[in-house]
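Box 3.1 A note on notation
Throughout this textbook, protein chains are presented in two layers. The first layer is the amino acid sequence; the second is a C-alpha cell string describing backbone geometry. Keep the layers aligned when reading.
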Amino acid sequence: MLNQFYTLQKITHKLRDLVGFKIVEVVTQDKDSVVFAFFDNVEFHFLRFISIPNFECIFLTNNFKNKRSKQTNLFPEIINEIVQDVELIGNSRIIQFSLMKYNIFFQLFGGGNNNVIITNKNLLMSNALNNAKELVGNTFEYVAPNLFNLDHFPPETTIKKALSNSQLMLHSYYAQEFIKENNLNFNYNVKDFSTEEINLILKNTKDFVNQIQNSNIGYIIQNQDGNLIFSLIPLNNVGKIVEKSENLFDLIQKVLIFRFKQNKFKTLFRKLEKILNDDYKQFKRQYNSILSDKLKKELTIKYRNYGDLIYSFSANLKEKGKSEIAITDFEGMEQVIPLSTKMTLVENAENYYKKAKNLNKRLIINDLRKEKVINQYRLAEKRLKELTECKTLFELTNFYKKESVYFKLKMAKEEKEISERFRKFVLSENAVAFVGKDAKNNDELTFGFGKANDYWFHIRGASGSHCILKYNGAGSPSKQIIEQTASIAAYFSSQRNGKFVPVAYTQKKYVRKPKGANIGAVVISKEEVVLVEPKIPTETED
C-alpha cells in the first residue's frame, strides 16, 4: 500500500515541508527511479521516486549515495526552481509540485503508468522520466478515477470490491479489515444487504476512513504469507504488527527494501532451482538405470539361453513365420520363446544373442561409471535439499556463493546453447528478447523455449520471426521494453523497411498451434497491437 490514496495523502502533507526549498539537482542511477535534491541554504533533503510496477512509491530520504560515475542528470529546466506548493490532485494518485515556472507531476498509478512529468504553467509537457518522446509537446490532462458512487453501489458487485473501488478510496487491505471488523460476509454482493444495512455500512466506513486519516503513526504489517504491508492503522485481521513509527518515510523504505529483497530472492531461487532440478532429473534417470542392472543381468542370461535353445532345436532352422516356439530346455522344462514372424529361426536366435550382447555392454559401462553416477545423484539430491532450506536472501546468496563454480559453469553452458539456437537481445537487467531464425526454429522458440507467462511478439498481417520476451522484473514490462521488443520483431519480418508497422503481442499462454498447421503457424486467442519502427538495439548478442 505504498501508493494507496491515504498513504499519498499523508506523504503529500509531509512533503509540504519542502515549500521554499530550491531544487539543486535531479539525477537517476537507473531508468526506474529518480532522486530530487532540495536545498534551503541550510540543509539538504532528498526525494526519491520509484516507478517500478508493484514497487511504485515516493519518499524523503537521507540515505542517498550519489554515485557520480553511474548517474544521469535529468530535467535541467527545473534546476534552481523554488517549490511554491505541494498537493495531491483530487482523488487521484498524482502529487503535484508547483514551482515558479514549472510543475512536477508524480504519477503513482501502478502498472506501467508510473511517471514523473514536467510541464510549464500552461500544463504543456516539456519532459518526462518515461515515454518523453510521446508526451513532450502535449497538454497534461488529469483524468479522474472511475469510482463507485456512494449513493448507488452496483448491486451485482461484492461488498469488498464496492468498498475498495468507491469514493471512500479504501484499498483492498483496508476493505478486508473493515469487513472483518464488522462481521460482514466477503462473498455477499451489495444486493444481499438491505437499504438500512448499506446505510449502516457507509456510516461505519466513514468512521473507519476518519480513523485512517487522523492517524499520525505508520505500521508495518506482516501477513500470513510473510509479506510486509505498510498501513496507517493496525490490520488485526490481515496480519501482525512488526513495527510502528511516526516516521512514515522510514517505514516505507523498510517495506520497499524488503520487497526488493523478496523479489531478488524469488528470481534467484527460480533460476537455481531450474538448474538443480534439471541435473537431479538427469542423474536420477541414470541412477535408476544402474539400480535396474539386476534385471538387465537376468535378461542377458535369458536372451542367451533363448538363442542356445533355438539352435538346439532339431527342426528346419531356416523356417520362418512362427510367432513363438515351445522347446524343452536343458533341465527338462518347457520354454515358450517369442519369435519375430519376419525372421527365420536362425535369425531369431542371432537377434537374441545381439540383445544379450548389447545389454552386457550397458552393464559393463554402468559398472565402470556406477560409483560416479551414484555420487552425482546424491550430490544433486543434496544440493536441491539445501536450496529448499534457504528461506532468506542471505541464506540463498551464501548457498550460491558456496556452489558458485558449479552454477557458473551450468549457466555459461546454458547461455551458449541458447545463443546458438536463437538470436538474443539484452534490453535491460530484467528483460531479454529471443528471435527465431526460421519457421522450424520459430516453433522451437515458442513452444519449446517459451514459458506460459513470457511475452510473444510477431509482425501483424505479414511473415516474420517469432519473438519471445523473457522478463523477470517486478510487475509487467514497461511500455519502453514492449516497444523495443516489438521493433525487433518488426525488423526480423517482411516489413523490415517499413516506417511504422503493426506488431501483435501477447503472453505465450494465449498462443497455440492448431493440429496439422504448417511449421511456424500459430493461432492467438488474445492480443494487443503496437505501431513501431523496425529496428534492433545497437548492443546485441547474436
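Residues 248-291 form the longest helix (44 residues). The chain has four domains: 5-135, 159-256, 265-421, 422-532.
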